[in-house]
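Would you mind writing out the residues of a protein together with its fold in token form for me to study?
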Amino acid sequence: PARPWRAAGADAVARARRAIDELPSPHAEVLLLRDVLGLDPTEAGTILGMAPERLRGIRHEARQALAALMA
């Protein structure tokens, strides 16, 4: 999961990071833990104090919001 971030150009990564910063706190945190750092749902859920099932729902919402911001 973290590999695409390393392969992306610096401009694309900077643009994505700015868009992530615009997301509400739980959404941004979930994206950073899961998609940037590559943690599995159990690890990320433990850090955030939420069940992996709830984390999956927030991740889905966060990805939709991020896509809209970057469109």
In short: The chain has a mean pLDDT of 87. The first helix runs from residue 3 to 7.
